[in-house]
Amino acid sequence: MSRLTRCMVGRSATRARGRLASAAAISVLLLAGGPPTRAEEAPRAVIANAESSAPVSPLQGARLVSMLRRGGYVVYFRHTATDHSKNDSGMKDYADCENQRPLSAQGKREATEIGRTLRALRLAAGEVLASPYCRTMDHARLMFGHATPRAEIREADAGDYAGLKRLLTAPVPLGRNRWIVGHGNPFRAVAGPPHLAEGEAAVIEPGTSGWTVVARIDVRDWQALAAAS
Description:
Layout: H1 3-31, H2 38-41, H3 61-70, E1 74-78, H4 105-121, E2 128-130, H5 134-144, E3 148-149, H6 162-169, E4 178-182, H7 184-191, E5 201-206, E6 211-217, H8 221-228
Parallel strand pairs: 1-4, 2-3, 2-4
Antiparallel strand pairs: 1-5, 5-6
Helix pairs in contact: 3-8, 4-5, 4-8
């Protein structure tokens, strides 16, 4: 047998062994029910609810401003003041603003003024997320000029706000903050009492399996922060 013939026979044998190995691997996968899914490879951990959203040792004044400039935090707002003569009972979908409880004139002024103060304080920017309801989207846009709607901020999954909890625990890089505008009831459900007032914000330090509320900022507190910085 010539050298060329022996080489060709060797290559054919190698390819045949490769095909047999691939077929065997496919058979194993089929017997096992197919390749593992992403969820099977990395199941999401269950994040427990907190008992209280009251800060134990709250950041205040110039130190709070300094930390928010540094970044790495989640800032969760309950929407500012609303017109309680209206409700959401007749709404057809999130875009049906006429049949939802809207921001009042006062609430619009508050959201606009908070936005001015945030810019004057030069706090770290970052993603701006809001519940898709009109009042929360309006608050976020008046405060920042833009917002990305995220249904999990409002909607519960089998009675558990798992999506909201992931937003509160997901790490935020230094130099950025995650700004969220949502509602009082979902936040209380996952973070505990006391209930957020309209326009009040909770400053949150995210962790690997939970979060820590390090400050709560009422609507009237922003001007004091500006004076302290």
